[in-house]
Amino acid sequence: MYPWLTSPDGPFPLSSYFTLLTVGFMIAIFLAWRAAPRFGIDPDDLLDMSLYMFAAGLIGARILHVFADGYFWDYVHLCTDPLQVEVPSFIHVPCRVDADCVAAEAGELCHPEALTCRPGRDCFAAFKFWSGGLAFYGGFILAVAIGVRFIYKRGITFARMADLCAPSIAFGLIWGRAGCFLSGCCFGTVTESPLGISFPGGARLPGADGQCPKFYNLVTTSTGDKMCSIGSPAFEQHIEAGLIHPPVHHSLPVHPTQLYEAGFCLALTLYLFFWRRKHTRFAGQVWWEMCGLYGLGRFVVEIFRNDDRGVWALGLSTSQIIALPIMAVSAWMLYQGLRRPPTTDPYGLAPPEQV
C-alpha cells in the first residue's frame, strides 16, 4: 500500500489516487483526441469538452461522496460545531487547552468536557476532493450532463462524441482503481480465496495511561476493548470488528475489489477499442455497450466490497442503485438500435457518391 507517491510532508506531495486519476485522464483524452477525426469531430472541440467534463466530474464525484457515503453530518459539523466530530487519532489525546492539541498535531480544539482533542473548524472540508472521497457515478452523471450541453451548443452529434469517448472513459477507470489499490480504499470482504490480499497496519494495546502513540487511532472493538491501530482501512476495520488482535501487522486476506474492477475495465477497454469500434452497427452502440457492461461489472464487484460507501434498502450500495437504471436504459437503446438494418457508415461520414 502506497497512499503517497512522494512524501506528504515534502514540497510536492502527490497522493497515489489523485495522481494516477489525473495521469489516466490525460492519457485517455490523448487517445480520444487522436481518434476524433475518424468520427468527424474537431480535436479542439474534444479538448474543450474534456476540460469542462473533468471539472464537472470532480464536482459530481465529490457531491455524491458527501451525500451518499455516510459522512454528510461530519462535513456539516466540521463547519458548525467541530467538537462533535470524532477523529480516532485525535480523541485519545488529552488536553487542557487548544494549544495542547496543536502541539500534539491532534487537531486544533480541546473538548471542554471530555478534555480530548478535536479537529478545527473547516467549512471547506466538503470541497477538498484532493484529500480523498470521490464517487465515480456522481462524476459520471454530472460530466455527461455538461458534455451533452457542450455538444448541443457546438452542433455535434451526441452519438458520434459518445462513441468516441466511451473507450477512453473505460481506460481512465483502470488508473483510478489502481490508485484506489495503492491507497488501500475500496477494499473487499474477507476471503480464503487465493486471490485474497492482506493490507498492512499495526496494532497495540493502549499505554498505562490509556493513550495511544502519536498518529495511532484509539479504537473500541466490537467486544468493548480499547485498541491502538494505524494502517490501511481494511486493517483498522478488522481491528474494530475484533477479527485480528495485536501483535499483528496485516489485515485478514480480502477480495482485491480494486483490482477486480481495474481488470474488468481493462477488458472492456480492449473490447471497445479493438472490436466494437471496428464492428459498429449503429451510431451510439459503443457508448451504450460501455454504459451497460460497466454497470453490470460494477454491480457485481460491489457485492464483494466491504468499505464504507453507503448501503441502502435490500443491501444495495449507492453505485448498485445507480447502475440498475443505467443498465436498463442501455439495454433498451441497444435493443432499439440492433432492430434497425445494419449500415457500413453508421456515422454518415462517407463522402457522397459522384454523379
3D architecture notes:
This protein is mainly alpha-helical. The chain folds into 3 domains: 16-69 and 133-191 and 255-339, no CATH class; 76-125, no CATH class; 201-240, no CATH class. It is 49% helix and 5% strand. It has helices at residues 16-35, 43-68, 72-80, 98-103, 136-154, 158-183, 233-240, 257-274, 285-303, 318-339; strands at 109-110, 117-118, 201-204, 217-220, 226-231. α2 runs antiparallel to α5 (136-154) and α6 packs parallel to α9.
- Helix coverage percent of residues? 40-55%
SSE topology string: HHHHEEHHEEEHHHH
How big is the Rg?
A: 24 Å
Q: Helix/strand/pairing class, anyone?
A: mainly alpha
Largest sheet: 3 strands, antiparallel
Query: Please, how many helices?
Result: 10
What fraction of residues sit in β-strands?
A: 5-15%
Mean pLDDT: 92
Number of domains: 3
Tell how many strands the DSSP assignment holds. 5
Separation, N- and C-terminal Cα atoms: 65 Å
Looking at the structure, what is the overall shape? elongated
Note poorly predicted spans. none
Major sheet strand order: 3-5-4
